[in-house]
Structures are given as structure tokens and as C-alpha cells.
Design goal:
There is one protein chain. The chain contains 10 helices and 8 strands. The protein is α/β, with parallel strands linked by helices. The radius of gyration is 16 Å and the shape is globular. The chain starts with 6 loop residues before the first strand and ends in a 13-residue tail after the last helix.
Length: 228
């Protein structure tokens, strides 16, 4: 039986849309799913409803789910779907230490100062498009949700990716998230901060190709999102 090649399905981060990943998607094709608070300004439902909307966009499968930043929390909630053959989490949130808005703002600023300056207008225009109301609502819904607890039920390979200069996804938190998944691993990108899919598209594309290769199945029961 010929191998079944999974599709990549990408969920952007808080307030971001397809412009945050266009450089990456030029290198490796991916289906983009925009949700309320992540590229859409619509009212934000609960995290499990967001995950259900993502699952409704998976098609027949198999797929490798890719999340960035707060999009990782939606991906983790959807990853128990049996069509999911692999998961890649780029800068996953939310570190419990960052649930305070004041502390989050400080760590975000420290991370932003480590990003290339050309990133700032690109990010701001996406935030304005999504809108502060939807962004606040998504933060309130997603930030208390423990992504590490969600991943304990995910039996497919989970790759956590962080930039070594990322303060929103510190090294110890990234290790904790990767260790929570039964088949988790951690990849660190030297010199990168939080917007890895935009600033380091070649490195992230290599990670995604490796995830696709690892998730490629000969069919049948070769992919299954629920841990046995």
C-alpha cells in the first residue's frame, strides 16, 4: 500500500493571521485555519468550541497540526482527533507564570526587543485587523488552559519548537510541555525569538518536513491522535 502523506494544518497565534506565516507557507504548503481571536474578529467561544471548529476543518486526514503561540492551545485541545498524525507547537503558551497581564506585558516587551525591527509593523497591522476585543477574549479563554495537561492524552509525535531568545516560551516551560506528551520532543532554534515561523522560515520548514516524514503512514491505523 502506498504511503499516506499527511497535510499540514496551521493555526496562527493571538491576533495573527496568514501574514504571519506567508514566508513559511512559501517553503512548505499548509492549510491555514483562522479562528476568532486568531485572524478573525468574531466573538470568541470557549477553547473546546474553538478546537471543535478546527477539527471541522481537518477533512478526511491524516493531518499534522501546527500551532503558533496561543494557537498551540487550540491545537493541543484538537489533537486527540484520530485524523491527527502529528503535532508541531511553535512557541507554545501559556506558561502559568505569564497569566498576570502585567508580567505578560513585561516578558512580551523583552521578547519583542529580540525580534527583527521589520516585524513590528507586520504584527501591529494583524492585531488591528483582528481587533483588541477578540484578542482580549481569546486570552481570557485560553490562558488558564493547561496545554501540558491536554498533551498527556495525545499519543502521536509532538514536536515543541522555541527560539533561544523567546521569553514568552522560556526553555524550562518548553521542556515541560514537550515532556507532557508521551512522544514529545523539543527543538530549539538558535537566535530566534517568538515569531519563528516568520523570522526563521527555513528552520521551521525543516522541522515541519521532518514531522511530515515521521507521521507518514502506510494507511489503516497508522495515525491516531488519542493516546492508547
Amino acid at each position: 500500500m502506498p504511503p499516506v502523506i499527511p497535510r499540514l494544518v496551521l493555526v496562527p497565534g493571538l491576533g495573527l493571521d496568514g501574514r504571519s506565516s506567508w514566508r513559511l507557507r512559501r517553503r512548505v504548503p499548509a492549510d491555514l485555519v483562522l479562528l476568532p481571536g486568531m485572524g478573525r474578529s468574531a466573538p470568541v467561544p470557549g477553547l473546546d468550541v474553538l478546537a471543535a471548529r478546527l477539527r471541522a476543518r481537518l477533512g478526511t486526514g491524516p493531518v499534522v497540526l501546527v500551532g503558533h503561540s496561543q494557537g498551540c492551545q487550540v491545537v493541543a485541545a484538537a489533537a486527540v482527533d484520530p485524523r491527527v498524525a502529528g503535532v508541531v507547537l511553535l512557541g507554545p503558551t501559556t506558561d502559568p507564570r505569564l497569566r498576570s497581564v502585567r508580567r505578560l506585558a513585561g516578558w512580551w516587551l523583552r521578547t519583542a526587543l529580540r525580534e527583527p525591527t521589520w516585524q513590528l509593523p507586520l504584527v501591529l497591522v494583524q492585531w488591528l485587523s483582528t481587533g483588541p476585543r477578540a484578542m482580549r477574549a481569546l486570552w481570557r479563554v485560553a490562558s488558564p488552559d493547561r496545554i501540558d495537561a491536554r498533551l498527556r492524552a495525545v499519543g502521536v509525535p509532538v514536536t515543541v519548537v522555541r527560539g533561544t531568545r523567546d521569553r514568552l516560551c522560556p526553555a524550562d516551560w518548553a521542556r515541560q510541555v514537550a515532556a507532557a506528551a508521551p512522544r514529545g520532543s523539543l527543538v530549539e532554534l538558535p537566535g530566534a525569538a517568538h515569531m519563528t515561523l516568520q523570522t526563521h522560515p527555513d528552520a521551521v520548514a525543516a522541522v515541519l518536513r521532518a514531522a511530515l516524514a515521521g507521521a507518514t503512514s502506510t494507511g489503516g491505523d497508522g495515525f491516531r491522535g488519542v493516546s492508547p
